[in-house]
Amino acid sequence: MARLARLGLREEEKHSLRGELESILAYVEKLQELDTDGVLPTLGSGNERPVLREDAVTNPERAREMVAGAPDPDETFLRVPKILD
User: Fold this and answer.
1) Could you please report the per-residue DSSP string of 3-61?
2) Which residues pair with 26 in a beta bridge?
3) pTM above 0.85, yes or no
4) Contact status, residue 72 vs residue 79, Cβ threshold 8 Å
5) What is the pLDDT of residue 46?
6) Which candidate among 25, 30, 48, 65 keeps its CA 20 to 30 Å from the CA of 16?
7) Element (H, E) at 73
């Protein structure tokens, strides 16, 4: 798994993580034994649309203050390097 995730792990880290992963998998197996008949799905099952707030500026007077710490601010905007031609 570490190779697939391109993680550079030392040998002792591999052994430690193997034990943790085995423990997690054992817990998941134990959860599979639970009788969930009659248990309603949770609200976060993905079937509902998320409640989103309106995208509105609520503090325009602080715009300069918010970008002041950026490496290259431009008035109230952030200037970033071009990445696409």
Assistant:
1) TTTT----HHHHHHHHHHHHHHHHHHHHHHTS--TTPPPPTTSS-SPPP------S-GG
2) none
3) no
4) yes
5) 63
6) 30
7) strand 73-74
